[in-house]
Amino acid sequence: MATRTVDQLEADLTALLRAAQPNRRLTEMADDGSPKIPSLIAVFLINQVGTSVGRPKLVNLSQVNKVDLRSMGGVARLVHRTLHSVPAGPLAS
After folding, report:
1. What is the pLDDT of residues 1-39, one digit of tens each?
2. Residue in 80, 75, 56, 81 with CA at minimum distance from that of residue 13
3. How far apart are CA 33 and CA 41, in angstroms?
């Protein structure tokens, strides 16, 4: 998952949600143009990604912009940023 683009992650997350909840409709669009989802579904998707990459606590939800939890695109961008974040440490000179 760490090498996936945001668009690929959004497609993966959509497929995951469709597999978990085949009757869920994703017809309503969020402001970012991606399917709108409830924040509880966003948390479920983030937890699934965290489990699949061996990081059960992928993000600290208290520090997440709540707008990111309202759409598939927002969750995909959040996951992408998290998986591609630069680890803390000394800077190279």
Report:
1. 667 899 999 999 999 999 999 999 999 999 999 999 999
2. 75
3. 18
Nearest to 77 by CA among 33, 25, 24, 26: 33
**How far apart are the C-alpha atoms of 19 and 15, rounded to whole Å?**
6
Distance of CA 29 to the CA centre of its chain: 16
Q: Which residues contact 25 (CB under 8 A, 6 or more apart)?
A: none
Q: What is the pTM of this model?
A: 0.85
> DSSP 3-state assignment of 36?
strand
Q: What is the CA radius of gyration of the chain?
A: 14
29 bridge partner residues: 35
